[in-house]
Amino acid sequence: MPERLTEMLLDTWTPLVILWITVFPSMYMAPMNHSQVAPSRSSRGLNELSEEQRVLNRSKRGWVWNQMFVLEEFSGPEPILVGRLHTDLDPGLSNIKYILSGDGAGTIFVINDKTGDIHAMKRLDREEKAEYTLTAQAVDSETNKPLEPPSEFIIKVQDINDNPPEFVDGPYHATVPEMSLVGTYVTKVTATDADDPVYGNSAKLVYSILEGQPYFSVEPHTAIIKTALSNMDREAKEEYTVVIQAKDMGGHMGGLSGTTTVTITLTDVNDNPPKFTQSLYHFSVLEDIAIGEPVGRVKANDLDIGENAKSSYDIIEGDGMDIFEITSDSQTQEGIIRLRKPLDFENKRSYTLKVEASNIRIDPRFISMGPFKDTATIKIVVEDADEPPIFSSPTYLLEVHENAAINSVIGQVTAHDPDVSSSSIRFSIDRNTDLERQFNINTQDGRITLATPLDRETSMWHNITIVATEDRNPSQISRVPVAIKVLDVNDNAPELASGNEAYLCENGKTGKIIHTMRAIDKDDPKNGHYFIYNLPPEMMNNPNFTIEKNQGK
Ligand SMILES: *[C@@H]1O[C@H](CO)[C@@H](O)[C@H](O)[C@H]1NC(C)=O
Ligand SMILES: CC(=O)N[C@H]1CO[C@H](CO)[C@@H](O)[C@@H]1O
């Protein structure tokens, strides 16, 4: 075979050639060379090889059948000649009639019943229907008797590159951690091409990046998008728009292309330490704030987000480490300084603390970038608050003998105003605790005196409340409990207990106990009662009875 012809055949005609060589029928069909522009009904575009083959194959009878090809989207002024049926049953026979049936016969494909030329009457679209199955038959034109058995053949619609690549899943969104190394996988995109994937290069895609360089790259054949720059910093630029193009014809000139957008967001890594907004904070606080109350807030900002921006706060130094504490506000990420122990302006008027904010979640990759913490100094000034008087004791216990004289002093309470500009104090008795007005108090010096007589046997305790009021600001009030215990004096005579009738027998023996006397006393001496029993004077000289102390009691 001539070299030039071989080359020609290698392209679209290869499958036909193979069939012609392997099958040896007497009837054949000849496809048209579609590189010809606008073939006409009269065109004699028969392949030379067909003639050669025809000679070769004449020895055998039957259909030479094969597949024919027709270019899709052909839109010449006249119908395109797809191919020609021919039987060499009897080359001289003029009464052969060709009949075509099957997919599109008579509408899309029309056969010239004499010449066997098949024309495509319509423009075809391979992506709509890629092949048509038809049946051809040669009959006697006069008798309509089949000269050959019918045989099927296929007309294949041959692809042209009439479909651009399409990204059906686009536009895409992808993320990649900031500070990733060059070549880190980001995502993969896919374009599809409706053209014939097995024939030619019409569906052979090559990807390239139109927008997004030098930050990202795309792998031409896999469409894998990777980072192309290291140390991309989310805090500098968070979102990138990457445009990827897919081009068919293997990316060559003249290919069709389609594009898609990939929005790539850098995700946060902890590459920023917390930083206090100020190196020195000043707070002032009234000395009388309650334990647990906030004194002030500090903030260490972190350019990162989420967990990477979270810091814990600690007091690491200072003269108020036991007085204050710092906690973090999970909402605002601020450090809140709170009071742990009471303040006393009169005792200490300022504190200095050193606080530290340190990231909670640290990425080991970035430890070398420095400590993920920061410190600041906090100065707290304690301000004087108008405080109520303070008694010299939280409670008082006073004792008084029950026979104490009216106006005698029972005891004294004292109190002072802790404020620097100290106020004088007035004392009073809370009369709700001394309804009987048993006591009086000296408003100036706090001496408590007896107002009415006491009786221990009536009331042993008088528990009263003393009120101290600042002269300058009468709303500054303190109260203290005073328990007054009434001490016993022997103001009650003993009495003999009842049931003092005794009986003895006539012949009672001398020395026999005939009765035990008992005495009682309302008083309550410290060491208990001690009674002395004597017979009345008129009995003193009667030798018949004596009274004795009962076992020392
Ligand atoms: C008064 O106070 C004393 C001492 O606290 C206590 O023992 C006593 O029970 C109290 N008496 C009354 C009547 O409250
Ligand atoms: C003073 C008195 O009553 N003495 C009497 C003591 O007992 C003797 C014996 O029973 C009497 O005789 C006494 O009179």
From TrEMBL:
GO MF: beta-catenin binding; cadherin binding; calcium ion binding
Gene Ontology annotations of biological process type: adherens junction organization; calcium-dependent cell-cell adhesion via plasma membrane cell adhesion molecules; cell migration; cell morphogenesis; cell-cell adhesion mediated by cadherin; cell-cell junction assembly; homophilic cell adhesion via plasma membrane adhesion molecules
Keyword Membrane: yes
Gene3D superfamilies: Cadherins
Membrane topology: Single-pass type I membrane protein
Pfam family, one: Cadherin
Superkingdom in the source lineage: Eukaryota
Domain Cadherin span(s) in chain numbering: 87-167, 168-276, 277-391, 392-496
Compartment list: Cell membrane
Matches recorded under SUPFAM superfamilies: Cadherin-like
SMART domains in the record: CA
Keyword Membrane attributed: yes
Keywords linked to the UniProt accession: Calcium, Cell adhesion, Cell membrane, Glycoprotein, Membrane, Metal-binding, Repeat, Signal, Transmembrane, Transmembrane helix
Gene Ontology cellular-component annotations: adherens junction; axon terminus; catenin complex; synaptic cleft
CDD domains linked: Cadherin_repeat (cd11304)
Protein's name according to its UniProt entry: Cadherin domain-containing protein
Organism in which the protein naturally occurs: Anolis carolinensis
